[in-house]
Write a structure and sequence with these properties.
This protein has 111 residues and is mainly alpha-helical. The chain has six helices and no strands. Helix 2 crosses helix 4 and helix 4 packs antiparallel against helix 5. It is elongated.
């Protein structure tokens, strides 16, 4: 548990933003309309980008509607495993660094 706390302390900005986003998604899926970021590319150009519809797709996934999530943006099924894998890999790297830094290297001097 101490390892997880130190990992979250190291990456607190990223995981705070992720927590706010997830709470907004849960709120929107429950009918409480919270702020979610809109697409700046779509606002400027009028065309949808590759990320357009990801918020609606994530809300549909939280509701259990996989067909709607697929129709909003099919890339959600690629992005979600990639983000999960990246977080797992980053935590594993932190774990290895933390594990090796806790051991002292013996001093090998000749007497």
């Amino acid at each position: 548990m101490k390892l997880i706390q130190s990992y979250l302390k190291k990456n607190w900005i990223l995981y705070t933003l992720l927590l706010v986003y997830i709470l907004s998604l849960f709120g929107n899926s429950l009918g409480i309309h919270l702020w979610l970021p809109s697409c700046p590319i779509s606002a400027v150009t009028g065309y949808e980008c590759f990320g357009c519809g990801l918020n609606r797709a994530a809300i549909a996934l939280l509701s259990g509607d996989f067909a709607a999530a697929l129709s909003y943006n099919p890339l959600i099924f690629i992005y979600l495993p990639l983000i999960t894998g990246w977080i797992t890999y980053d935590f594993y790297k932190f774990y290895l660094k933390h594990k090796t830094s806790n051991y002292e290297i013996p001093n090998k001097t000749k007497v």
